[in-house]
Design a protein that fits this description.
By secondary structure, the chain is an alpha/beta fold. It contains eleven helices and nine strands. It starts with 10 loop residues before the first strand and ends with a helix. The model is unreliable at 1-21 (pLDDT under 50).
Length: 290
């Protein structure tokens, strides 16, 4: 069973604030449930927003996060809250329900994308979804602070420039490696595999079970092991935040067959990177492995 690593803390991102300090005067207090959305919100808000991310620990499984009193206080005081949704951060929705506020605005990414509980919740691994979320956050900032609408439009343009190397890398991998067979220990990589044009052959039952913290069906384990043992995949992508005995064995088997392994974490790793730096780093590692 997956366990949350102790010490997950709330940190301030991209606002020059230390944990526990109030937002700077005349800024929009923003709370993002996860730091991948927090990074984007911080870049889009610039000096007009103080962005706090809750789930940040690259050594913990975000699915297992349990909220704290500090989280509840932050949600209660927020002018904008960003949730992933689709069951990924139900703790955040519970905090919102327990602390109603008429002036607070909420971006639920799953709702924005027309997704629901049971759908793959790893939306930040879809470049198209990332662009949609960035657009929505900008719209929320402009709705909250209409006087600074021009500033927020400029921040959105700046983010587009910052995201371009990441988007270019996605296009380059798709152009050079489309159709190549790869495996993944978890469904965190499904949206990106589709964007890259890769053939993700791992049984969905295996990936979904690992994501949900349950044992994969024996038949899916056997099929995945057969794919690796017979070198039917070129690369194994693994989630370092959901490692268990089954996925550790899968990774070891791939290494024994000299199949390259590449990590795809759920939260930004290392935490000091921006969203686009994190994604670009992982994509370049994948391209090298392919």
């Amino acid at each position: 069973m997956r366990r949350l690593v102790a010490g997950v803390s709330v940190v301030w991102l991209l606002c020059g604030c230390a944990p526990g300090r109030p937002p700077a005067p005349n800024t929009i207090p923003v709370v993002a449930a996860e730091n991948f959305w927090g990074s984007l919100a911080g870049q889009l808000g610039g000096s007009r927003a103080s962005v706090q991310s809750v789930v940040t620990d690259p050594n913990a499984d975000p699915h297992e996060y349990e909220s704290s009193i500090a989280d509840a206080r932050a949600f209660a005081d927020a002018g904008l809250v960003i949730l992933n949704g689709a069951g990924y951060d139900d703790w955040g929705q519970k905090l919102l329900d327990a602390n109603p506020a008429s002036g607070r605005r909420v971006v639920n990414v799953a709702t924005l994308l027309g997704k629901r509980r049971g759908d793959n919740p790893h939306f930040w691994y879809s470049p198209a979804y990332v662009v949609s979320v960035a657009d929505r956050i900008t719209a929320e900032y402009k709705a909250i602070d209409a006087a600074d609408a021009g500033y927020f439009d400029a921040r959105r343009s700046a983010l587009a420039v910052a995201l371009q190397p990441y988007l270019d890398e996605v296009a380059a991998i798709r152009r050079q490696h489309s159709g190549m067979a790869v495996g993944s220990t978890e469904n965190v990589f499904v949206y990106m595999a589709d964007a890259l044009g890769l053939d993700l052959t791992t049984p969905p039952a295996f990936m979904n079970a690992v994501a949900q913290g349950t044992d994969p069906p024996a038949s899916s384990v056997a099929l995945f092991q057969d794919q690796i043992g017979n070198r039917r995949i070129q690369v194994l992508v693994y989630n370092p935040q959901t490692i268990n005995a089954v996925t550790a064995n899968i990774k070891a088997l791939a290494q024994s067959q000299h199949i390259p392994t590449v990590g795809a974490s759920e939260t930004i790793s290392p935490p000091g990177l921006s969203f686009e730096e994190w994604q670009l780093q992982q994509l370049r590692a994948l391209e090298a492995a392919l």
